[in-house]
Structures are given as C-alpha cells and as structure tokens.
Amino acid sequence: MEAKNQNQELTRAVLTFSVIVIAISWYIWVRKKQVHWNSKLPPGPPGLPIVGNIPFIDPELHKYFAKLTNQYGPICKLKLGSKLLIVLGSPELAAVVMKEFDVTFANRDPTVAAKIIGYGGSDLVFANYGPHLKNVRALCVREILSKSALDAFSTLRQQEVRKTLRSLYAKVNTPVNIREEMFLIMLNVMMNMMWGGTFNDEDKIRIGLEFRKVAEEVLDILGRTNISDFLPVLAKFDLQGVERRMKELVSWLDPFFESMIDKRMKMDHELKLNGDQDGKERKVKDFLQVFQQLPEQGESKVPFTFTNLKALFM
Prior knowledge:
By secondary structure, the chain is mainly α. The protein has 13 helices and two strands.
C-alpha cells in the first residue's frame, strides 16, 4: 500500500514538474518572439499591460501625435489595447505608404459598429482589398461618380438648391437652422442619385426626414470611442451598448432597403411588360438601377447580392 502511495506521489510530482517546465518554456518562447517582433518596430511610448497607451491619450489627437513624432521621430508605434498603431509624422512617409505600398495597407480594420452597419465589411469603406472591391469601386466611378454621370445630375442639384432658396424665402423674418437646410440639400441629392426614380415627391420628403434621423445617429455611433474595439475580449459584453444600438438602427434600415429594392424591381418589370407609356423611365440612371441591371449587362464577374447592395447604400 505504501509503495502504491509513493508511486502516486511520484507521478504527481513528475506531472507538476512537467507542467511547470512546459509553462516556463512557453513563456520564454513567447517573450523571445515578442522581443524579436518588437525589435523590428519603430520606437514609441511605453504602455501599461493590457490597456497599452489608452490612459495616456490626449483627446486632441493631432497634438498628441505631433508630440509623439517630436519625441520618437517621424515614425513611431502606439499600443491601444490589443491594437498596434503606427504613426507617420511627415508627408514624405505618408506618400511612401499611400503610393508605393498602397495595396499592402489597403485593408481596413473595421470597428464593431462599422461591421454591423457595413454588413460584415460588404460596403465600399471597410471591405477588404480584393476583386470584389476593385470591381464594385470601378463600377461606382464609371456609372455614378464619373464626369458624365455628375453632369447628368447637375439639373437635379440645381432643382434642390432652388427648392431650398424658395423655402428660405418663405421663412423671412423667422429663425432658420442653416446647418439643417444644408444637410437636407445634400441628403436629397444623394437620395435621388441612389434611388431617385423609386419614390414620388411626397414619399421622398417623408423618407428623407426618417432617414436623416437614422443617418445622424449612425454617424454619431461610428464616431464614438468603443472600448470593445481595442479590447476584443470585452466585445461580447457590449459595455457601452454600441453593438446593441447599431443593430437596432440596422433593423430599421434593412427592411427599408429591401422594400425599396423590391419596389424598383417591380417598376422595372412593369416597364418591360407595358413599355414606357407614362414616361416613368428615367433618362439618368440612379445607383439602384445601375446595379440591378448588372446581370442583364453581362457583368458576371461581380457576384452581387442584396446584401452587397444594401451595404453600398450605407
């Protein structure tokens, strides 16, 4: 019995010793890799464990970055939680990165809120660099943002400006929020360029007011500092409620975009069946019309889905 107990104790001791040796070896290996990795990085301010330099950041980032580059040189590193940032402090370095190594640095690091509003990176802003992004970006430039397309929408822009001027003239001697009026002009122009032929004037006004409120809150949330973006381990807890609120906004936008796409598809189908008897077909194609006609035009190299289309509207 004693021999059996001694064997069990010896086994425990050997296992404990083995675990300790493995843990120490793993720690030494990780530390060596970190030292080797850090030796290739530019200099930067020391940070705290886990949170890095987050507690020391100045809210006025441009001044903080200028101070860093003055102290550590034109290129320096900054650790924000688990995120490693490289700060470039000279136009020459920025030109090298953006021109010579543009493809290397083309991918984005979307925030929690951006992933939700962009349908997992299916939009133009946060999509990873690849064939899909290149093809969609080329189509947007050619069909929507080219000189000929912008010239075609010049009449629309003039009409919106005239409408606003008439509205302002009717409000003589009353307080006017210029910022709000300018926002409405830009929103109306963008909505007309995106899906202008889908709704009548009354619907545009109603939808514009609702869309404006949601768009303002989306921009506000995207601009917030979210601790989950720097410490992904906390993302599942959603401490600041950013993920929850952004999902609520998307739950409003999603059915709106789907109904809009369905309505346009029905309109196009009716035009094909009955012809353009009422003059409903627009001479200037909007964003929605362009991308719905891609399969008909043989643009098969762009695998376009409803999700991609909704993400682009964002």
